[in-house]
Specification:
heterodimer; A: 248 residues; mainly alpha; B: 261 residues; alpha/beta; Rossmann fold; 9 strands; 40% helix; binds adenosine-5'-triphosphate; binds magnesium ion
Amino acid sequence: MGPIYILWLRELKRYVRSRAQIAASLGQPLLYLLALGFGLGPIFQKSGHGSYLQFIAPGVIAMTVLFTSIFSGIALLWDRQFGFLKETLVAPVPRITIMIGRTLGGATVAMIQGVLVIIVCLIAGFRPVNLAAVPLAFGFMLLIAVVFGALGTAIGSVLQDMQGFQLIMNFLVLPIFFLSGALFPLTNLPKALGIVTSIDPLSYGVDGLRGALAGISHFGPAIDLSVLCILAAIFLGIGSFLFSRIQL
Amino acid sequence: MIRVHDLVKTFGEFRAVDNISFQVEKGEIFAFLGPNGAGKTTTIKMLTTLLKPTSGRVELDGLNPAVKQNEARQRFGIVFQDPSLDSELTGYENMDLHGVLYHVPRKIRIERIERLLKLFELWERRNDRIKQFSGGMKRRLEIARGLLHTPKILFLDEPTLGLDPQSRNQLWTHVKNLNESEQVTVFLTTHYMDEADRVADRIAVIDHGRIVAQGSPAELKEQTSSDSLEQAFLTLTGSSIRDESAGSADQLRQFAKMWKR
Ligand SMILES: Nc1ncnc2c1ncn2[C@@H]1O[C@H](COP(=O)(O)OP(=O)(O)OP(=O)(O)O)[C@@H](O)[C@H]1O
Ligand SMILES: [Mg+2]
């Protein structure tokens, strides 16, 4: 228990101490919310889908959790570069414990960021339709954080240095976000796009979150929940396998 | 305590460690000396579960570190050649994190952290973040941290790199004490021959991944009919400066591997 706690605490301390980064990481969601929420709002309304701000806010929250958790996983690369990884890898603690501590820490940070963005959304005018469903929304945020935190760890375990980072950003993280239905409804999509969105794990996170917060759901919460739980188990498995094989 | 038999590590075509064998007995201070790029750190990495050997046998206290990783890790402590602190955390937090990872009980942890930080004159700066530390202070903290738990085997990879004479003295005195009072086996590398001469019971000289001589400091001097260990070392390893890195072809190969995986 001690090692998990201390590694979790480390992630949290690093987060709290990087105030500039916290501010910077809130800028992007804010931009999406304002530019898209208000910019596309009128068109969205006219096409009969209701308020775009209501629609996009859960997407923006999911985006924040996605980015924060996947990067906290990939931060493994930084720890490798600056040497701290060695210190944890030679400690008499099973690697799975180390990975759990790190992932929980990353997930907690992602949750905090998510809550900050929820507050921003509330200020911008977003209103949850059903307060009783808010805990469910937190559950979905946590699942998103764990799924992508584990994916980040898997990636960070395999990459040897920073060179691959840009590649991951452009060909994995951004597509996961843009093809998830965070920004557009999943109904009546062209067939190909429909297939792609349905294999994007984040689609289920966004859908679940939107169901809980805005009362709009495409797959239904039961499917969202089960898909995410299964994916969390798979990614944690892959992540811890790759993490346990790291050599320095 | 440490047994190594026909150990090999290759990076691509390059043989960084080439068929070495040696033994270190319990309670011994063993120095592993060699020019830059000789394969010292690579050997230590294989002994400390960070790297899998290409071939050969390794035993730490009767355990194979490649198989019984956790059991092996419980038996050693290590001070790395390269930095391994978390620069966003304070000196105290780095120590505390280490203590928790190594299961040092809370009371003993608090007490030892204070003693070691005072010993290496870091107590006043304990609440500063590592990024505000000077190079030597970071180095001292790495050493203090490595001594926080009392392992059966202590690996010290160039521990005195960048340290002032006071701290160096402090370190070796402390290590000698640990060795005598707790029977800690010490495996060290250094480029300062006078240090090796002073603290080591036995020495192995490695060059180009191979062990070229083994014995007590006195034996090595006698073998090479030199009056100082430095001279013996130069006689054994020649006086040309070593190419520190593997060839660029190997680096390309490493790079290619990164994508293949
Ligand atoms: N990951 C790696 N990939 C390719 N080559 C490597 C790798 N790690 C080490 N080497 C090579 O293996 C050789 C031995 O390196 P090692 O770090 O063990 O030397 P060393 O004896 O510790 O030297 P120094 O005194 O400079 O610390 C060097 O030629 C180095 O370039
Ligand atoms: Mg070295």
